[in-house]
Amino acid sequence: MRVGTVPSAAYDDLPYTRGGTVDRADVGALVQSAVDGDAAAWKALVEGLSPLVWSVVRAHRLGDADAHEVYQTVWFRFAQHLGRIREPEKAGSWLASTARHECLKVLKSLRRLTVTSDPQLLDRVSEDRTPEQSVLDSEEAAAESERIRWMWQEFEELGERCRQLLRVLMASPPPSYQEVSAALGIAVGSIGPLRQRCLRRLRARLDARGAL
Amino acid sequence: MHDDGFDGELLEEELRQAATILDPVPAQLRQLAVEAFALHDLDARIAELTFDSVVDAIPVRGATDVPRMLTFRAGEVTVDVEVSAQGLLGQVLPPQQARIEVLGGPQTATSVVADDMGRFTSDAPPTGPFALRLRTGGETVVTEWLRA
């Protein structure tokens, strides 16, 4: 999965296949099983790669309605192209790249519509209560909840480039650099240094706030 | 460059936890993706999007609510579609009769028929992702999924 032969010293200490060796190893096999009709394999692909697709959509700051539609379009198209994807082991990159293109198309059509204001472009954290949030609402976890919200707030206020990169990097399981590259259209080799810089910036903001 | 002891790895992991709690994949979307397995159809030919007015056309100044023009192609078969608030208007080329399903997801489909000239209409404008499944002659052609 390594691209080119750049001296590793020039980059972050993480390998290009970050996450890939563990979580992504089976992607090619899962795609093949799904092609053969194995619904459980498909479900495993959805579980493993949904957060990546969602992170790409969120990184592009789509409003909820557009975000939902792009997410669906990407998965419907993936199901449709299943078995025709040339490099099944890179299904994550295929999904990330498809998501990116659909996001850019949405942004282009929004601009074209000359919308009076762009409320849709404002990122909103869903108001739906997840089970995790409910747990956090318990009194013992209130402090932890507060800390996480602070961190999220500082993350949201980072510059656009850093916000985009970190939003994709924080998908769970962690995406490979190939996938991040496909998601954001940035060179694999620049991800490591950029990541380090963005995390430092976030750290500095948190320190300034006295959090953590 | 870790001489100052900055642990980016740890901070990223904390962000990952925060994202899982504050901005998870909505459960209903994940479920739709699981159900999308039903859309997997190896027998159909995929008609790829070759023209989309959102991307390929020069915008008309001052014009609002312009229908979106789409062209899909699978080999010799071309499908032109106009999407507007009134619904779909389209034509299959070369002109031919066809049974067409307008798909709105894994479990949503409405049927329309293309006449001898290959023309078809649907009163229901797609509200989200959609695809057309055409049965014509002996083959099935499905347009690439697209967000309306």
What shape does the CA trace of chain A take?
globular
The secondary structure category of chain A is mainly alpha
Strand content of chain A: under 5%
What is the number of strand segments of chain A? 0
Most extensive contact: A-B, 64 and 47 residues
**Main β sheet profile of chain B:** 10 strands, mixed
Proportion of residues in helical segments of chain A: 55-70%
Q: Tally the helices of chain B: what do you get?
A: 3
Give the overall pLDDT of chain A as a whole number: 82
Offer a concise description of the structure.
Chain A has one domain (23-113, 135-209).
Describe the structure.
Chain A is mainly α. The relative contact order of chain A is 0.16. Chain A is globular, with a radius of gyration of 18 Å. Chain A has helices at 27-35, 39-59, 64-81, 91-112, 131-137, 142-156, 160-169, 177-184, 188-209. Chain B is an alpha+beta fold and 148 residues long. Helices cover 19% and strands 43% of the residues of chain B. Chain B has helices at 8-22, 27-35, 53-56; strands at residues 45-52, 68-74, 77-84, 87-93, 98-105, 108-114, 119-122, 129-136, 139-143, 146-147. The longest helix of chain B has 15 residues, at 8-22. Chain B is elongated and about 75 Å long. At the A-B interface, helix 2, helix 3, helix 4, helix 5 and helix 6 of A face helix 1, helix 2 and strand 10 of B.
